[in-house]
Design a protein that fits this description.
Blueprint: E1 3-7, E2 10-13, E3 18-25, E4 34-39, E5 46-51, E6 57-59, E7 67-72, E8 77-82, E9 91-98, E10 102-104, E11 108-113
Parallel strand pairs: 2-11
Antiparallel strand pairs: 1-3, 3-8, 4-5, 4-9, 5-6, 7-8, 9-10, 9-11
């Protein structure tokens, strides 16, 4: 079965950095697009960044220039490097992939203090 396991969240001060990781199993990772979403309290889940198998990327306007998505196919892992973090980046971050259906990780909490 498909499993996505995120790690790397935590508490950081505004202006700081974090790197999230998501390791996948049960899929042919190299041919799957991967994405990061986030959900803040009381808000809908939103797309943060996505990367196709070919390396094309998409970012939410709110994170462009601050966040970078990357992948290591040999490790079945996708990363989200988050720099210049702001309090409004506080959310639970989820890894996502599509293989016949949508799969989600358990989420990792990111809290940015002002």
């Amino acid at each position: 079965q498909v499993q996505l396991v995120e790690s790397g969240g935590g508490l950081v001060q505004a202006g700081g950095s974090l790197r999230l990781s998501c390791t996948a199993s049960g899929i042919v990772f190299s041919i799957n697009a991967m994405a990061w979403y986030r959900q803040a309290p009381g808000k809908q889940r939103e797309l943060v960044a996505a990367m196709t198998s070919g390396g094309s990327t998409t970012y939410a306007d709110s994170v462009k220039g601050r966040f970078t998505i990357s992948r290591a196919n040999a490790k079945n892992t996708v990363y989200l490097q988050m720099n210049s973090l702001k309090p409004e980046d506080t959310a639970v971050y989820y890894c996502n992939t599509q293989f016949l259906r949508s799969y989600w990780g358990q989420g990792t909490q990111v809290t940015v203090s002002s």
